[in-house]
TrEMBL record:
GO terms for molecular function: structural molecule activity. Residues 575-731 form the COPA/B TPR domain. It is a peripheral membrane protein. It is found in: Cytoplasm; Golgi apparatus membrane; Cytoplasmic vesicle, COPI-coated vesicle membrane. Its main location: cytoplasm. This is Coatomer subunit alpha. It comes from Gigaspora margarita. Oligomeric complex that consists of at least the alpha, beta, beta', gamma, delta, epsilon and zeta subunits. The keyword Zinc does not apply. Residues 302-547 form the COPA/B second beta-propeller domain. PANTHER family: COATOMER, COATOMER SUBUNIT ALPHA.
Length: 1186
């Protein structure tokens, strides 16, 4: 919830109203100003000044850009919030005007004042005055002249139609009924009055009395015959509109109520009081239902209905209007299949139940429930073929009754019981207490088991009664049939219902999600919901449910995620592998889950991020993938980690490569020592000398047994005693004497020589195999590793061909290259391709070709020593990555994959993103995109031309970001193709225009945009093309109907009417309205023709068209009736089915095309969309990426 802090008012705010479609609200208060706000930007847009006293109420008009305000200055003002001007002032009240509201459909305003009157105002003149401009005829000019004369004495835009007098004191509130010609008013005389009106007069119908203080507000229930009022007597009261009797009272102890409103769509009401507000509902919205096998028994509109899941048949069986009351919904339902009986419980009279037997046949009209048995009880359920249990909560007693409603046994439980539920056996009951659920044996009268849970509201058993889900307000406890807990799941929002899948997975719904829960405690989201639903059955990819209106619905879900997790838990690896290959499970959540459960090798299959792939590969011991990703990232920490893991497995070749990449020279020297690679040890000695690292140089000379090098090093660093001692110990007499001479000493001066010293001799490796690995540690290959190695086509996950045998690497050749690829005439030299010598980096790909660099940098003596007359072998350069492969790796866009020539992956992407299944219309677009990204340069006649790839970001030098040029450009489509399609539409070439708009839809699939704002524009363009294709298709279909029969005429008129509701450009909308107006007028549908004429005039058409429309409107108003009744409701929003051309009104079930979002009736799910001609209707998709 967002809070907008208001600093702009100089006093209290008395009235607030939200716009029905725009992100706006208007406020009025004691500073005499009306302010219009944008609640998204949380800013005040502007103020309207004109009132001279407090502003009491403000309201938006449902259609026009008008605001209605009522003030203590005894006036009502109508403002145009677009032009920010006052367009009408309604005067006539002689005291404060407490409230003024627009009629929801007609050109009327009702106002309430402290002058004890309610006034109804006619503002049709104001509407006509603000309608579309038109040419003025002679008669119109005379009428306008007369109107000008009338304005001298008062405005004729809004006139008083009725003055309703009947209240004894001031009137605080008045409002219209949403559909009936009724008005309700509330006043300080503590009365609520109901008024009726017609075209000629208005009169008082009745008065509702019962409040003990001033009545602040009253309104009509949007969907039931109820009136709701609140007052300063601290109560909210509900009245029966037909009987004018009190139905229910809600009382608050310390707060007076001042205002009241209803939600425009939901069954919610809000009332403001002294210290805040309360939001409440009048009735229980959860329908009472029970499921048995393939049948759903539920209550809707006071009828017991049976829905068959297999055949989708829904029949009304029994009338239960006498149960509870007119405004009290049944609470629960229990079904007995053996006796075909039901028990329905309600909260009437403190709780009661009714037992009915259902008819054997469900054909015909539902019969009245006349032979029922009734009794007191808050809960009642069947527990056997001829027995049911009833809970008397007040007495805390459970009665067992037979089907004649006679008590056969009474049980008094030891704990306080709130609810009783079926336990799956004839002698068992589940008792819900405030802190636990008890499994109770009725026969033995003892507790079998007990589980501690928060208060449980509903119980759902699996089909085999092996598991049970205990649903609380915010918790789900899953247990077995003996109430041994498997898991406890907490939700932050309210849990509404649940049902078991055939595989043993519990699927449940919250206020805004459908979720799943495994018995081990894992849970997740399946899909989001617009409105809460109550699940009844889960079957495959469909969830059967009831909505709050009691309508049966089928919601499509993707069960792959929870089936995947269940297969993992059950170790059904074949099913896991099948799901991996056939589904598109992605996301960090599934990766984290697999890591948590100990399946990193499976998670490795889903990951594309190099760092995550590296961590997973190390975790599961996949050294090949770890090496590949380490090369791609080239980070020091990754090479260190790889070295540790490779050393653990005994793969010293990869250890060597890792040490080379991070320049860990000391460890490299040691690895060369233990593998007996003396040649590389000598090179390490030279590198240490170049680096001026004396300790490394000493260690390497020690490892090599090079005494002369050690003596020379000790002399260079000034350690002459150690140098002498070393030379003398190893028998280098001449070198020892030279050291003494340089120090000015003789042999006689050295007296304290050690006598028991031993020569330092490096150990000799038993097995010298520098070019092959040690026997590797066996890393157990899982079921999935084997499967992925043979089938995974992901290039990043392709394993390297390192074998456990010595000849494994020796046999590698051809395109893979041999040992020479690594540089040191062995298997590892190529890896250190960025080794630095004296701060200079070696060139890319040079590996450890140290000889060449040393020839440049070392002196002639060292160069001569290193060369030794040997010749290196020729190493052919490795081929680079193909440009088109870079495009595939760099982009998730289908267009870039098409440009790279990978049509198959492009089609897979389009299938996932927009549910594309028909690629035939895209063939020419694919070929054009592919050809546009390449240019060819001819060389010799006998040679093929050179191919040059054209990039859309030629300045980019990083290969990971290069992308191909695309022939389809969004701006060009809008400025060229779209305008051409508009022009064709204007010319009336509907078939050609349809092809052009559909071609635009196909082109959009292969474009790329760089700004987020352009993404929104692309979606708008898709919507424009869809509306035009649907509309033009209907118009072409209409022209095929000859007007030679009432049926054909009716269908043609309906299609013309539907065409006018497509969101077209104003010029084209005028043409569609003109066509519909003319057709209806010729068919003598005068009422409908007049409506189309009015809509046409609102669009400010050309003078000739406007004159014709007024003439038709004038003639039609004389005989306002239709000769042909159309299936068309202009006031109820609808979409048109793209196949059957049948309107789908708001609230009706429908399916959509995942690409163009065209609407279709549910029976067309799975068919090809006729609008875009590409996608499958109702297919799951992730959304188009551009």
């Amino acid at each position: 919830m967002k809070t907008i802090n208001v600093w702009f008012f100089l006093g209290p705010v008395r009235g607030i109203a939200f716009h029905p479609t725009q992100p706006l609200f208007v406020s009025g208060g004691d500073d005499y100003k009306i302010k219009v706000w944008n609640y998204k930007t949380r800013k005040c847009l502007f103020s309207l000044n004109g009132h001279l006293d407090y502003v009491r109420t403000v309201f938006f008009h449902h259609e026009y850009p008008w605001i209605l305000s009522a003030s203590d200055d005894q006036t009502i003002r109508i403002w145009n919030w677009q032009s920010r001007t006052c367009i009408a002032i309604l005067t006539g009240h002689n005291h404060y005007v407490m409230c003024a509201q627009f009629h929801p459909k007609e050109d009327l305003v009702v106002s309430a004042s402290l002058d004890q009157t309610v006034r109804v105002w006619d503002i049709s003149g104001l509407r006509k005055k603000n309608a579309a401009p038109s040419s003025v005829s002679f008669d119109d000019s005379l009428h306008k002249s007369a109107a000008t004369q009338a304005d001298i004495f008062g405005s004729t835009d809004a006139i008083v139609k009725y003055v309703l007098e009947g209240h004894d004191r001031g009137v605080n509130w008045a409002t219209f009924h949403p559909t009936l010609p009724l008005i309700v008013s509330a006043g300080d005389d503590r009365q609520i009055k109901l008024w009726r009106m017609n075209d000629a007069k208005a009169w008082e119908v009745d008065t509702c009395r019962g409040h003990f203080n001033n009545v602040s507000a009253a309104l009509f229930h949007p969907r039931q015959e109820l009136i709701i009022s609140d007052a300063e007597d601290k109560t909210i009261r509900v009245w029966d509109m037909s009987k004018r009797t009190l139905v229910q009272t809600f009382r608050r102890e310390h707060d007076r109520f001042w205002v009241l409103t209803a939600h425009p769509e939901l069954n919610l009401f809000a009332a403001g009081h002294d210290n805040g507000l309360i939001v409440f509902k009048l009735e229980r919205e959860r329908p009472a239902y029970a499921v048995h096998q393939n049948s759903l028994y539920y209550i809707k509109d006071k009828y017991l209905r049976v829905f068959d899941f297999a055949s989708n048949s829904d029949v009304s069986v029994l009338s239960v209007r006498k149960i509870g009351g007119q405004y009290m919904q049944p609470r629960s339902l229990s079904y007995n299949p053996a006796e075909r009986a039901v028990i329905i419980t309600t909260t009437a009279d403190g709780g009661s139940f009714d037992l009915f037997h259902l008819p054997k046949e469900f054909n015909g009209e539902p019969r009245e429930a006349s032979d029922g048995k009734r009794g007191p009880g808050t809960s009642a359920i069947f527990i056997a073929r001829n027995r049911f249990a009833v809970l008397d909560k007040a007495r805390q007693q459970i009665e067992i009754r037979d089907l004649s409603n006679a008590t056969t046994k009474s049980v008094k439980p030891s704990a306080t019981v709130n609810e009783i539920f079926n336990a799956g056996s004839s002698n068992l009951l589940l008792l819900s207490t405030p802190t636990s659920v008890i499994l109770y044996d009725i026969q033995q009268r003892q507790v079998v088991s007990e589980i501690n849970t928060p208060p449980v509201k509903y119980v759902v058993w699996s089909s085999d009664h092996s598991q049970v889900a205990l649903l609380g307000k915010h918790t789900i406890t899953i247990a077995n049939k003996t109430l041994e807990e498997s898991c406890l799941i907490h939700e932050t929002i309210r849990i509404k219902s649940g049902a078991w899948d055939d595989g043993g997975i519990f699927v449940y719904s919250t206020l805004n999600h459908i979720k799943y829960a495994l018995s081990q405690g894992d849970n997740g989201i399946i899909r989001t919901l617009d409105q809460p639903v109550y699940l009844t059955k889960v079957k495959g990819k469909n969830v059967h449910c009831l909505d709050r209106d009691g309508k049966t619905r089928v919601i499509s879900i993707d069960p792959m995620e929870y089936r995947f997790k269940l297969a993992l838990i059950k170790r059904n690896y074949d099913e896991v592998l099948q799901i991996i290959r056939s589904s598109n499970l992605v996301g960090q959540a599934i990766i984290a889950y697999l890591q948590k459960k100990g399946y990193p090798e499976i998670a490795l299959h889903f990951v594309r991020d190099d760092k995550t792939r590296f961590d997973l590969a190390v975790e599961c011991g996949n050294i090949e993938v770890a090496l590949e990703t380490a090369k791609a990232m080239d980070r020091e920490d990754c090479w260190n980690t790889l070295g540790v893991e490779a050393l653990r497995q005994g793969n010293h070749q990869i250890v060597e490569m890792a040490y080379q990449r991070v320049k860990n020279f000391d460890r490299l020297s040691f690895i060369y020592l233990v593998t007996g690679n003396l040649e590389k040890l000598k090179k390490m000695l030279k590198i240490a000398e170049l680096r001026n690292d004396h300790m490394s140089r000493f260690h390497n000379s020690l490892f090599l047994g090079d005494v002369e090098e050690r003596v020379r090093l000790l002399k260079e660093v000034g350690q002459l005693p150690l140098a002498y001692l070393t030379a003398q110990s190893y028998g280098l007499v001449e070198e020892a004497e030279a050291i003494l001479t340089s120090a000015g000493l003789t042999a006689d001066d050295i007296t304290d020589m050690p006598t028991n010293g031993q020569l330092l001799k490096p150990p000799t490796p038993i097995l010298k195999h520098p070019d092959s690995n040690w026997p590797l540690l066996t890393v157990q290959r899982s079921f999935f590793d084997s499967a992925f190695i043979t089938t995974d086509s992901n290039p990043l996950a392709a394993p390297l061909s390192f074998n456990d045998t010595n000849e494994g690497l020796d046999d590698v050749g051809g395109d893979w290259g041999g040992d020479d690829d690594l540089g040191f005439n062995g298997a590892t030299e190529k890896a250190v391709d960025d080794l630095r010598i004296d701060g200079e980096a070696l060139e890319e790909g040079s590996g450890w070709d140290i000889d060449a660099d040393l020839n440049v940098q070392l002196n002639n003596e060292i160069s001569q020593e290193l060369s030794n007359g040997t010749h290196g072998e020729f190493v052919p350069p490795t081929s680079g990555t193909n440009e088109s492969e870079l495009w595939i790796h760099n982009s998730p866009l289908a267009a870039d994959h098409v440009a790279a020539g990978s049509f198959e992956t492009a089609m897979q992407l389009l299938n996932r993103q927009v549910g594309a299944v028909n690629f035939e219309p895209l063939k020419s677009h694919f070929l054009k995109t592919f050809q546009a990204t390449r240019t060819y340069l001819s060389c010799n006649v006998s040679l093929p031309p050179l191919v040059y790839y054209i990039r859309r970001n030629p300045e980019e030098i990083e290969t990971r970001r290069v992308l191909p040029i695309l022939p389809y450009n969004f701006q060009n489509i809008v400025s060229s193709q779209l305008q051409e399609a508009y022009k064709t539409t204007t010319l009336g070439k509907f078939q050609d225009a349809t092809i052009q708009f559909r071609n635009i839809l196909h082109s959009i699939l292969l474009i790329s945009v760089s700004k987020k704002s352009e993404v929104d524009e692309v979606n708008q363009l898709i919507e424009v093309c869809r509306e035009y294709i649907v509309g033009l298709s209907m118009e072409q279909m209409r022209r095929k109907y000859p007007l030679d029969s009432p049926e054909n005429t009716k269908k043609a008129l309906e299609l013309a009417a539907y065409f006018t509701h497509c969101r077209l450009q104003p010029a084209h909308l005028q043409l569609s309205l003109r066509s519909a107006m003319t057709l209806n007028y010729k068919a003598k549908n005068c009422l409908t023709a007049s409506m189309f004429a009015r809509r046409l005039l609102e669009l400010a058409p050309p003078q000739q068209v406007a004159t014709q429309a007024r003439q038709i409107q004038t003639l039609s108003d004389k005989t306002p009736r239709d000769e042909i009744t159309l299936d068309y409701d202009q006031y109820n929003p609808f979409n048109v089915c793209g196949i059957s051309n049948i309107p789908i009104y708001k609230g009706s079930s429908s399916v959509e095309c995942p690409y163009c979002h065209a609407s279709y009736l549910p029976e067309h799910q799975g068919k090809l969309c006729t609008v875009c001609d590409v996608s499958q209707i109702g297919a799951n998709s992730t959304g188009l990426k551009v």
